[in-house]
Design goal:
This protein has eleven helices and nine strands. The chain has 313 residues and is an alpha/beta fold. The structure holds N-carbamoyl-L-aspartate (NCD).
């Protein structure tokens, strides 16, 4: 495998290899010298056409821990039309000898164009494309679920995960649905009908409009940010109504199983999809997710640039 564009491209073996490699990378964190020489002399470009805090910094830390040179290219604000600007940028990166390009773009499919248009030879890693996919986020979520909920074999088979909120605009939800299903977890999407995509019944997971009805049965709930910047119309009557029906607050959290956990990819809208109390509860694992993100991205860079074996699928 050369690129990581979608979690739908990962076989079970690929996904487990990435998660196991990430666990090995995590062991590095306990050492005084946190660096591996593996990618010395290789150049990783962070090409971000959309805002990001966590993901960009996480890729930067991951690449640096593997001793790669890192270039941060914030392309937001360009006046050139999107297709042209992506091509011109790609040609520039090719001329500079980029070995990997980590790309975030507001248009779904932009990383595919970059990977398959013959503009560059570099490995392309999708760091979020429009409302489509965000594969390393799903991998770090799976890593976090595994750390808390998997049995001794590390399998997530049968683990029940609800993905709650703005599924329509969420690349995190799409990537998680593919990956969690590959790993054998049981996924339930919970959202108002207006925030579910057309054709969601073909995704192969359960769908509910009633958060309270499904909450007690979940091992984990993944709260999604309401993506105001992608909404050009009203998808729900008011913030208050949304948070009353689909937000996770303390009384609602009290109905969850005592060992169940809460994830959120960040950035959180405190008071909207998650209350401040729940965000700061010990069973909410947002900070741990960020730490795990570095390990997972190290594993992805290591395997893709170091030569991940072609999977049989
Ligand atoms: C997510 C994203 O950008 O897709 N954030 C992230 O990468 N941590 C989710 C979001 O913006 O809601």
């Amino acid at each position: 495998m050369k690129h990581l564009l979608s979690t739908a491209d990962l076989s079970l073996e690929d996904a487990v290899l990435i998660l196991d490699t990430a666990a090995e990378m995590a062991l590095l964190t306990d050492r005084e010298v946190k660096k591996l020489p593996t990618l010395r002399g290789r150049t990783v470009v962070n090409l971000f056409f959309e805002d990001s805090t966590r993901t960009r910094i996480s890729f930067e830390v991951a690449a640096k821990r593997l001793s790669a040179d890192v270039i941060n290219f914030a392309a937001k604000g360009s006046s050139i039309s999107k297709g042209e600007s992506l091509k011109d940028t790609a040609l520039t990166l090719q001329a500079m000898g980029a070995d990997a390009v980590v790309v975030r773009h507001p248009s779904s499919g932009a990383p595919y164009r970059l990977a398959h248009a013959d503009w560059i030879d570099a490995t392309v890693i999708n760091a979020g494309d429009g409302t489509h996919e965000h594969p390393t986020q799903a991998l770090l979520d799976a890593y976090t679920l595994r750390a808390h909920l998997a049995g001794p074999t590390g399998s997530l088979r049968g683990v029940r995960v609800a993905i709650v909120g703005d599924v329509l605009h969420s690349r995190v939800a799409r990537s998680n649905v593919h990956l969690l299903q590959t790993l054998g977890a049981k996924v339930t999407l919970v959202a108002p009908p207006t925030l579910l995509p057309i054709g969601v019944e073909q995704w192969g997971c359960a769908v509910s409009y009633d958060f309270d009805e499904v909450l007690a049965d979940q091992d984990a709930v993944m709260m999604l940010r309401v993506q105001g910047e992608r909404m050009n119309q009203a998808f729900f009557p008011s913030t208050l109504e949304y948070s009353r029906l689909y937000g996770l607050d303390t009384p609602r959290m009290a109905t969850m199983g005592t060992n169940s956990i809460v994830l959120h990819p960040g950035p959180m809208n405190r008071g909207m999809e998650i209350s401040a109390d729940v965000a700061d509860d010990p069973r909410s694992l947002m900070v741990e997710q960020v730490t795990n993100g570095v390990h997972v991205r190290m594993a992805v860079l290591y395997l893709l640039l170091g030569g991940m074996k072609e999977s049989a699928s």
